[in-house]
Every structure is written in structure tokens, then in C-alpha cells.
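seq/struct pair 1
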Amino acid sequence: MLKVGLTGGLASGKTFVAGQLAELGCHVIQADRLGHEVLRRGGEAYDGVIREFGRGILAPDGEIDRKALGKLVFADPARLEVLNSLVHPPVFRRQQEFFDQVERQDPRAIAVVEAAIMIESGSYKRYDRLIVAVCPPQMQLRRFMERDGASEEEAKRRLERQLPLEEKCKFADYLIDTSGTKEETTRQVLEVYKQLRAEAG
């Protein structure tokens, strides 16, 4: 089984790339989704996050309000680091369970994990190959503002907290430029998939 990391920057098109890889037959999971699961009531990180950040982050239904939590941590790198220390270990355990399950089903599978801060957290070292989705910073800002209804100031703040895409490119085995049409991106994904398929056997 080939373990593939898929990353990029804020709104750099990695989720579109992940969808294309899934359509081609790769087993794909989003670290974001796992992060949401471990923060839900009963999830492995729920109690620790409430202890650390207080009950003010709870929605009326008792679930963690991720927007309220985000406002606390995204303006404060030290608090973000604390949150990551609570969320990342159970997310990595769930990723390993995903790999184990995929390998049992199909030893020649391509298993892809999509995650935003894979390089920043050092978790990119867990994968056999790394794909980085890239586009110009102005396009990232515009896409994020359109997608999340964010202000330009908020988008810039979020972008500044991430490693610049040109730095992430240095770690990549494969680069996919998402700044063109969807068809152009899809063609690049297919080329990368063919190479991964050959490696996976």
C-alpha cells in the first residue's frame, strides 16, 4: 500500500484534488474531518479542550463551537499550539486505523490523507509520497473570502499563519497547480495518479 499525503495552503485547491483522486480509485480521508470527530462530545479531545479553553466555547447543544474556538486560538500561536497538542495525537491514531483498514482490504491500494498543516506539524514524514496543491497567494485570498465569507483582513491573517506555499513546494514529490481551469487541474491529477499507481504495484 502506498501512503500519500496531500497538502497545500489556505484555499489552494487541495480538496478538489482529493475529490479527483477519490474518483480515480484512491482511498481518501480528510484530517479536518477527523479533527471535527475528535472534538465532538464523546470524542477523544473533547474533555481536554473544554478543560483548557473553558465552557465559553460550547454551543447550546453542548458541542464545541469550532468558530468560537477558532477565534480564541487563531490570534494566539501559543494557544493554537496547545489546541494542536490535544487534537493531533487522536487524529494521527485515527489516520493509522484508516491505513490499517485500507491495507487489509487492498494491499496495492493508494491511501491519501488530505491535511492543511501536514508540513508545519511534521506529519508529512509519515507518508511515502507528498502532493502539494498550489496557486498564487491572491487567488488563495479570493477563494477563501468567497468560500467562507471572510474579510480580506481575516483571510490575510489566516494566510500569514501558514508556511508560504513556495516553502511547502520544497517538500513535494508532486506539485499540482490549481490556478487554471478545473479541466487543467484534473489532467495534472491524472498524471500524478498514473505515477502513484505504478509505484503502488
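seq/struct pair 2
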Amino acid sequence: MLRLATIGYEGATVPGFLATLRAADVDLLVDVRAVAGSRRPGFAKTRLAAHLAEGGIDYLHLRALGTPADGRAAARAGDRAAMRRIFAAHLATDAAQDALAHLATLVTAGRRVCLLCLEAEPAHCHRALVAAALAERLPVAVVHLHPADVAPDPDR
């Protein structure tokens, strides 16, 4: 069976984040943020890609698999149901479906892919929805990673 990992960098440090990716044998980080910027040092697109390259991990930004602005606003407001609804509609668009097909090609080609977004808890993040959509296309086992220096919050 094919494998797909996901990870969120919320609360992580770059060293802990990279250590987790290396331990999981990831060779391609696929950024599924609509906006690949970050206020967290080291996690904006250009700097993150450089850190990954230093560790032998490739970087790809699939913007079309990011949550639209209204979905991000719903998530910030704590309305996860609205975020899921908005993202599901977005995922049905041609651009998102093309990006999902590209992701499927990478996974079936044997790349050890990990999806990236901010949210620490995958159940609260659209990356779990992307992973589920890919699992509908491919026999893929999804593994949710947590950066080495961030413990999952059992109350979330």
C-alpha cells in the first residue's frame, strides 16, 4: 500500500519539524497552504524550501489545494463545519482536482510525500480532507505526523 503523511507546524521549531520529517523518511514536502507565508520564523515558503533542501527534502507548493480565504476565516472563527463545507466546494473545482491528480502521480511514482499546513491537529485542518480525497483515488495509508518538539493536544 502507498503511504501519505501529513504534518502541521503550529508550535514547532524548524529543527523539530525537520527531525520529524527525516524520521518519517519523507523526501517531498507538499505545501497545501493557499498562502505559503508564515509569521513563524522559518516556515514561509522560500525559507522553508531552503531548510528542507539542506536536509535533502524537496518542496512543492500546490496552492490549488489550499483553503480559500472564506474557509480560512471560518477556521479562525472556530467554525470547522463551515471550513469543511467551503473546502469541499473548493476541492470540486478543476484547479483543485488537477492539483489532486498531480499529487496522486507523485505518490504513485514512489515519492514519500508529506502534506503541510499550519494547524497542529489534523482533524481540525483541511490537509486531512486532502488526504481523504487522495485515499478515495488510491490505496493509500495516511499517517499524521506531529513535530518532535510539539506534543499533540489531547483536548483539541
